[in-house]
Amino acid sequence: MAREQRLTKVFVELADTLVEEFDVVDFLQMLTERCVELVDTNAAGLMLDDQRGNLQVVAYTTESARLLELFELQKAEGPCVDCFATGQVIANVDLTTSSGRWPVFTEAALASGFTYSHALPLRLRRQVLGALNLFTVERRALTDDHLAVAQGMADIATIGLLHERALRDQLALAEQLQTALHSRIVIEQAKGVLSARAGISVSEAFNRMRSHARRTGVHLTAIAEAVVAGRLEDADLQPVTGTS
Amino acid sequence: MASRRVAEILRAAWVDSPDGTDLPACLAAACTRALPVSGVGMALMTDQGPAATLAATDGAAVTLEQLQFSLGEGPCVDASTTGRPVLQPDLVRTAPLRWPAFAEGALEAGIRAVFAFPLRVGAIRLGVLDLYRNRAGPLSPDELAEALSFADAATLILLHEQVGAPRTGAVPVLDDRAEVHQATGVTSVQAGVGLADALVLLRARAYTEGRSLADLARDVLSGVVDFRNDNDHC
Fold it and tell me: Which of A114, A139, B190, B196 has the smallest number of Cβ neighbours within 10 A?
């Protein structure tokens, strides 16, 4: 499918989601995955301000200890920290030359096979709510066009966080951020529970819960809570054969 | 950094309660000193909702906790049942519409603002920490960060109290990483226990083996550590 068509499709998908009832973590996960595709990168993570002075990863594209470690490291050092602190885009970081600026992060990123990294702010007026972090394997910088799309995705992520009118209020935003962070943990716990019960990978566990959420229209977080509580068994979550 | 603050709060609570029997009350008292709030209450949670008051630093805090039990309504109840923080800086304006019965009792007790934080680790729901003020006004971002650190510390205290784990002076802060939460789920299934017990099991084992929780979690996820074969986790 041509890139323009792909962009259109994703734009419609995101917009359609935003006008319906949706689960924030599920939405951010989908957005992060689409972003990686649209701007020709290889991995991404979306990090949010946990309001305790830290960035916390809420969505990520690959179930990989190394990738998670790269986000963990960026609580202390890295493009996300700087992006979050300044609200500026940090684009086309060439990892072969960035070790002066971010030694620990650069080493870990190179060891994971990445050559470029980028961080885009989730901006809201004068605030920064988090950062969208992208990684590329191929030695190829992102074009201005790609960066514009990536920033657009980051902006849509912000809109997703604030979709209710009442959330223009600072405290309501605080509630929403904390709830997203709590939901993420429930989803991770459910991935573990389901993977152990069904003998599948955590990645497959996530896919099954997400498919079930799509099929039934129930929020991903509610599905995860039901899995943890034993109200949803693996048999209930099997994907229907023949559908994607 | 946030976890350093949580560790500080826990250490201070242990200093105030060396035998560990009074941790919720000590934490609540420290919270009133650290933040511009009039009082603090803490309640235990079960699946049915708030179950018992663990701490209340003054008369109005007692009233606040009692109201939620007797009425089953209010910001604290909402926070504990929905698992979302409920931040209400101006009860005069918002409470009568949203929680009419609660509003009457709370306003009469002089309570003008309530900030209720669910104490939870994902699906592990332990209780709620309620901060109140006798004047209206929001928490600033710094104050919110501090309140969240107290909530994190309270969560850890309740986690260990609920599970009846042996108490030590050191209650390490929680490594909040995806692998840790996934491993909690896996361990819960393998050991045939609830999530709270599973998390405590993991923390105890990491502590005994002198390694990080994240490290142990990765071994659980890769199958190197399997609690189905484990006989020494009682």
Answer: A139
